[in-house]
Each structure stands twice: as C-alpha cells, then as structure tokens.
Design brief:
Length: 188
C-alpha cells in the first residue's frame, strides 16, 4: 500500500474559518483546531476527500506519462510537485476545496517504504528495457511461477505490481489494465 503525507495550504484564511472550521473550535476557551487530531471530524473529511480524488489524479497523471512516452512511476517520481498540483486540481474539481473552503494541496510526499518500492520498480523497468535493447528478453511470456512462490507473493503488493509490469511489458495486458490493477493494489 502506498503511504505518505500531503501538505495543505490555507489559501484564504477568512473563508477557511467561516466555511470550514467547525463552530465548536470558534468558541471562547475552545480546543485548538488541529488537522492531525484523530477526533477532528473536519480533518477526517479532508482526508476522505483526498483519498477519493487520489485515483482520479493518478489516472490523469498516468495519461500524461503515456502522452510523454514515459513510465508512470518515473513520471510521478520526477514530478512530485506536478502530482501535488494535479491532486489539488482534482480536489478542487470534485469538492471545491479552494473556492468553498480556502484550502489548497501544496505538496505530496511518499514515506520511505513507498519511495523504496517506487525506486525498485524504476530500477527493474530500466534493467528490463536495457535487456530488451540487447535482445536478452523477448516478448514471449515466461513459465508460470511455482505454487510456493505464489503463496509468498500473495501478501506483497509490490511483487504483484512487478509481475503486472512484466505482463504489461510483454504485451499481455494493456496500460489501462496495469494502471487499474496497480491503483487497486496500492489502495488508491
């Protein structure tokens, strides 16, 4: 599962206070409004909105990568700021965050484990492309893995993504099928 953080920017403080901050935080001696508070229903709503829009933003970004003849993972890694902007556009189009709430997404960052997985996928893609150029790998599907390997891999979404990527590279599945399955495996 992909994990990380997203950063918010309050683009219109008055609108943010009037339209978004719950009234209970605006009373004298009220608790401090904190997005990280697990009991903060407003913060939880933003998180739910963000997750809902993540798949759409990822699909748009995948289309941009395809239009630029680049790998989606490479495109996301090389353009994290642009991905944050795409996410901001997606939540604005869907939930009108900036217009109605005075909030914008200013950044998206991956945690270390997710970044390492993306790096590994990028490395394997590069090695596979290099092997293909040298004629060491054909587009013929390889033998199915043994049952023991399948059991080990059932739990690891990154291994499943690597297998899907091989199927994509071998022309067995389409880019759209790959993107949908990868998004599902990553929980986006």
């Amino acid at each position: 599962m992909a994990r990380g953080t997203y950063s918010l920017k309050i683009s219109d403080p008055l609108l943010f206070i009037k339209q978004f901050v719950p009234a209970k935080y605006l009373q004298p001696n009220a608790p401090i409004f904190d997005f990280n508070d697990m009991d903060n229903e407003a913060g939880n709503q933003l998180f739910d909105d963000f997750l809902t829009c993540l798949t759409g933003a990822f699909a748009r970004f995948s289309q941009q990568a395809k239009a630029n003849n680049s790998d989606t993972m490479d495109h996301i890694q090389a353009n994290q700021d642009r991905f944050a902007q795409t996410m901001d556009e997606e939540v604005e189009n869907t939930y009108v965050w900036s217009t109605n709430r005075g909030i914008k997404i200013s950044g998206v960052n991956y945690d270390q484990k997710t970044q390492e997985a993306l790096d590994e996928i990028r490395k394997q893609d590069t090695e596979l492309r290099k092997a293909r150029r040298m004629g060491a790998v054909s587009n013929v599907p390889q033998q199915a893995p043994q049952a023991d390997e399948d059991k080990e891999d059932e739990e690891d979404p990154y291994k499943k993504i690597r297998k899907l990527k091989k199927l994509l590279d071998e022309g067995i599945i389409s880019q759209e099928e790959f993107d949908k399955a990868k998004a599902k495996l990553l929980g986006v």
